[in-house]
Specification:
Strand content: under 5%
CATH topology: Non-ribosomal Peptide Synthetase Peptidyl Carrier Protein, Chain A
CATH architecture: Orthogonal Bundle
Structural class: mainly alpha
Helix content: 55-70%
Radius of gyration: 11 Å
CATH superfamily: ACP-like
Number of helices: 4
Order of helices and strands: HHHH
Distance between the termini: 14 Å
Largest sheet: none
Number of strands: 0
Length: 78
Amino acid sequence: MRLKQAILEFLANELHSETSAITDETTFDELGVDPSQQADLMHRLQDSLAIILPEEKVANMTTIGDLLDAVEDLDEVE
């Protein structure tokens, strides 16, 4: 999935990390992202990749896997 790689690269760039350090189990908290920063990060991600994630899913994301699952759900709809 190219979109998954694009998301991981976006997050690594934004959070000054390596893509290899970000896994499905990595939490936003472990990445040093508090809830308000997470909301801002999700808005920038959506703008950058031209995707729209459902607000209810964004509000309940705690791990990178949650984010990737939400994006995968978008692929199934299209």
